[in-house]
From TrEMBL:
It comes from Brachybacterium saurashtrense. Residues 33-212 form the Aminoglycoside phosphotransferase domain. Pfam families: APH. Coiled coil: none annotated. The lineage of its organism: Bacteria, Bacillati, Actinomycetota, Actinomycetes, Micrococcales. InterPro entries: AGP_Transferase (IPR051678), Aminoglycoside_PTrfase (IPR002575), Kinase-like_dom_sf (IPR011009). This is Aminoglycoside phosphotransferase family protein.
Length: 249
């Protein structure tokens, strides 16, 4: 029997690996059902579901390697990023899934609430939070809903020989803003945006992507802190917020 490897663990969920099987345990008993449904509906490569018995979901390992790791420059080739762009475009053009998306008013309320928390509790200078808050409001515009992954981190996209072999972790799959997916994938990897768009297509709202970079970092920081992660680690959320302010100065 292979050893059990803990991939990620916090108070909401945990993911374990045993050989070529990944087992996710989630305290939210309906979230796995939504994830399986999203993978069934997606028109792109996804992991094989081996079994689902709440609160656990087992899936097969995806071949290849992730586009990169959080907090470090991606070593994947431009061709791999372009391949990711093509696959994500297919997803965004697929029929909308039946799951509810996040309402714009809810996103706006979260931005304001989390920005106030950062002003009161984070080591970031107030001007960094306030400037990013202004930038983030650029994402708060009406969007044409697309089928989005919803948590398209760089660690969730696997490639091999410059082709996408699978995209994992679909618990946030729902109708939403396509620019959000593109922003999450390039968060902390902003220099790879053009490689991604070489495959996705350049008919995108770059300002909205940049706004989502700021919005994501502002709204994710407290959750990371409360679940044992460090948003101030090199290359992570606070670093992105500082960089965004310098770029927009």
């Amino acid at each position: 029997m292979d050893e059990v490897e803990v991939i990620v663990a916090h108070s909401e969920r945990a993911t374990l690996r045993v050989g070529e099987v990944f087992v996710k345990v989630d305290g939210h008993l309906t979230r796995h059902a939504a994830e399986v449904r999203a993978m069934d509906l997606a028109s792109i490569p996804t992991p094989e579901v081996l079994w689902h018995e709440p609160p656990a979901l087992a899936r097969a390992a995806v071949p290849g390697t992730a586009l990169g790791v959080l907090g470090a420059p991606s070593e994947a080739s431009p061709a791999s990023w372009s391949a990711a762009g093509r696959v994500i475009r297919r997803l965004h053009e697929a029929p909308l899934p039946p799951m509810p998306g996040r309402p714009l008013a809810g996103v706006e309320a979260e931005l304001e609430r989390e920005s106030e928390w950062l002003l009161a509790h984070s080591p970031l200078p107030a001007e960094v939070v306030q400037r990013n808050r202004e930038i983030a409001r650029g994402a708060l515009r009406p969007w044409r809903p697309a089928f989005i992954h919803g948590d398209l981190q760089i660690t969730h996209v696997f490639v091999e020989d410059d082709e996408v072999t699978g995209i994992i972790d679909w618990s946030e799959g729902a109708p939403g803003d396509a620019m959000f997916d593109l922003a999450i994938l390039t968060l902390g990897q902003e220099e790879r945006l053009e490689d991604l768009l070489a495959g996705y297509g350049t008919d995108v709202d770059r300002e909205a992507i940049r706004a989502w970079w700021s919005l994501r970092c502002l709204t994710a920081a407290r959750w990371l802190f409360e679940h044992g992660f460090d948003p101030d680690a090199p290359g992570c959320e606070y670093a992105v917020l500082r960089a965004r302010m310098r770029e927009e100065a």
